[in-house]
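Dear colleague,

Following up on Tuesday's group meeting, I ran the structure prediction for the two-component complex that the binding team flagged. I've pasted the input sequences exactly as they went in, so you can double-check that nothing got truncated or mislabelled along the way. The structure tokens for the whole assembly follow below. Feel free to forward this to whoever is handling the docking comparison.

Inputs:
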Amino acid sequence: MNLKLIFNFILSDWRSGELQLLLVALAIAVGTVSTITLTVDRLQKAMTKEASVFLGADRSINSRLPIPDQFVQEAIDRGITTSSMIIFNSMVLSAKDNNRSQLASVKAVEGNYPLRGKLRVADAPFGPTRETTEIPAPGEIWLNSRLLYTLDVELGDTVEVGYAPLTVTGIIEAEPDRGFSMLDISPRVLMRMADIEATQVIQPGSQLDYRLLLVNDDESVFRGLYQAIEDDLQGYRWRNVRDADERVGRALGRAESFFLIGGSMAVLLAGVAIALSANRYARRHFDHVGILKTLGARPRAILWGCLGLLLTIGLVGIVAGLIAGGAIHFGLVWYLTEQVLTTVEEVPPASLQPVLTGLATGLICLFAFALPPFLDLIGVSPLRVIRRDFKRGGVSAVVTYACAIVGSLGLLIWYSKSWEFTLWLILGIVVVTVGFGTVAIFLLRGGRIVGMQAGSLWRLAFSGLQRRNVENTGQIVVFSVVIMLLMILYLVRSSLVDEWQAQLPDDTPNHVFLNISQAQHEDVSQFIDQYTSDGDLAAFYDGRVVSVNGQPVREYQNANRPAPAPPLSSRRQLTWSVDIPDNNEVIEGEWWSESTDEKLVSVESDYARAWRLGIGDTLTFRVRGETFDVKISSIRALEWGESAQFNFFYVFSPGVFDDIPSSYRAMLYVPDEHRDELSQLIARNPTMTVIDVDSVIKQVQSVIDRVTMAVEWILILVLTSGALVLLASIQASRDSRIKEHALLRSMGGTKKLILGSLTAEFLLLGLMAGIVAIAGAELSLYLIEEKILEFDYAIRPEIWIAGFLLGGGIVASVGYLSTRKLVLLPPVTILRDAG
Amino acid sequence: MATTEQNGDAILRAENLTKEVDFEGSTLTILRDVDLAINRGEAVAIVGESGSGKTTLLGLLAGLDVPTRGRVWLDGDEISAFNEDERAQVRARAVGFVFQTFQLIDSLTALENVMLPAELRGERTARTDAIRYLERVGLQERLKHYPRQLSGGEQQRVAIARAFCSEPLVLFADEPTGNLDTKTGHRIADLLFELNQENETTLVLVTHDKSLAERCQASTELAAGAVIA
């Protein structure tokens, strides 16, 4: 068939409205996928960028060894911006005559620090803070409020770090990469790398922490750099954003899983919509092909014609989809950035990958879902012009399904880059389809019995369901799969958002109080009672194990050397407790009763396993010169870093430390309006350490808010795809329904009766689909939540009614809206058009 | 038996033509041992009651279907031995159709429908030829109308224009007036025979309408799949 003829057919099909649905389905498929991939691509970059402030960079290389010049050079060669940093503990001395000194954590940075995020500084000690990207000039130093107090110095005074005299020109309260580490509790000092030499702190054997910060908007350059230096990374730690904050890392990881599930569902739904509309198009063209063949068109010509038609539709649909996707994503990115007060310019530009994904999705959808029905046209016999029922099958059903399955597999694997995920999803859908089909048949049979006794509108609807039972079984399966996918997505989203919010409730502790002495105990307790959410001062003791079951600890340690584990002989933070600490679980032995007078200890499970400590073992501790024996009575499991609280290897029973003086600690939520009272408390108790982690918490919350919003938008996009499938499916079945109802109208059925019975029929289909979908959703959710997102699955009775009603409501409304117009046409028009 | 002499000028010839189909596990014989020969330029009617096998015979003679047994020659080619591709080529070159249900493509205009066979053959004069034939059938005012905008008689006239526009050697007409009222039916029949004579086409007319059959030079009557007269 020549090109002009193909073009003519496309044009005439377009004029007659035959091609629109297929084209729209394809455009929406490509549009949805490219919107999702483009938006996700940019949001992920933005989120990673935002999260990168936790690291102060996109990547960092950390070590106790100096960073080799080779690393820096390799990074610079790849266009990566670098900044070196050294962190060390050093005594800072006041140059005044007061002889004051204090151990501080010194951070020496280059001129371009910070690469990501901002510093928080104060203009007066313990005063209000503001953000800045400035840093001290060479020869200058910034101290934190507590250090100014302990050293009794003011802005403009000189302090000494090692041998270098430096002028105090600023008050540093927080840096973006400070993080939330309990180990990093010394007061912070910020100075320039250029002054390091003068301090002479870099000596053989000095404990220095070297860091190389790396920044670039293009993620791929980091892979290149990693590969180039991988072999030399022994002794160096390559860190990315996720290592910097566990909560952010997990939120990003799960959001990616959600995008992946959402995106895959959008692809599958789009595929179904295309298959349905291509099928409808093909069915409506059997006669045309029969005529063409009668007129001498050869099968090959029909094949070329079909391919030409498909490619043209494909091209137009894909281009339209990409343009629409691009436009919608701009809108989305704009909206999202508006909401979180970041300007669009700050969101890194999209890469080419999402556009290619959209293009490939379109082509794969076209050939896997639309081609098989088109190939069916080639097999149409010319005899069809004289015998309408005559149609030799073109391609077998096996080929059609094989194409669709291979296409879906290909798309999903390419899209998710995960075999495991793809197989689970496909297996789920196959099982669900077969299961749904069986249930649908039973439901339709049940419908007959009920229908016999129903009034005339319902009888018409039930008999409609019966007559097209094969078609309706298919339709119930399609509806249920769509409703199921949408419910799954909605519920997974709810679980994600709930869990994120649970992780950081509004009263998440934002201040850590350390080194509270016995004398300060009362003042701090009063502050807690008056100004903070409930929180307790926990007693702390510094101590270590000296022997295990009478065997000196070093000897025991040598005899039981485990896989890497913290040494048994080191100093540890100890505490006592009446109750099991929150988020701890006793997995062996028993927790003590309140009134116990035995000296007992509970040991953390990994630590106990590593050092082969068990219930009944006796440990001898030395705390502040006192030595005493305790018996292990329980082993506790706990998630380190899971919640904002202090965790301990050893927790003792009450009374063990009765005669030993302790210091106290607390993690508290101090509301913004009580910051002044907090400053006064700190000023009254200058030896106490208070770490303000509010900015870190706020940053984490901002990232999580953004991820949550992105997740909701993806949900809306996928819902749109789902609605399209419903529409395509209803359109596909509309032809036969409409013709039948036109006949009924010609025989005297009123419009009201026909419209009522059509709506009732769709309502019944929707309700049946709803029932089937709920069961499928619960099953799939179990698998997704347990296997992919690693949540604890819980059955959700509340969605049962919702799914049931939604199924009926949505399908009935879409069915009503899409058939209403046709029912209003005179029956003669419909009958004549239908031939 | 066919009423025509079997001689070397037969443009269409059938020998022992039998068509069987499988129906619910048993074999149904629709046509049994039909012999037939039709000469170039002749108009032959195939008559018989509904279900007698007329349409099946037409399908076999025109190469739309293949016989279970027997052979068919069209313009010297044994089309019963051809594959679908080869039969399509023969149809494109030598055969035209007019059907009871018109069989126009509803998304194409009258003009586009008539141009279709010539376009399928890649001919450049398709448009002028099509306009000429539409004028000939009296539809010069309706070139851009779609089938649904035309009456039954007008649709059949478009179908006739389409059939003759490709100047076929043999024109197969399957109950061409069956869907029309008597008056329109007569006009269509007149047009069909006029054009047939003008173009010296061989006409094979399937009909149960005796008066239409009588206008042909010869007729073959079928009953229960066999030739009875």
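Residues 503 and 643 of chain A are 7 Å apart (CA to CA).

Cheers,
M.
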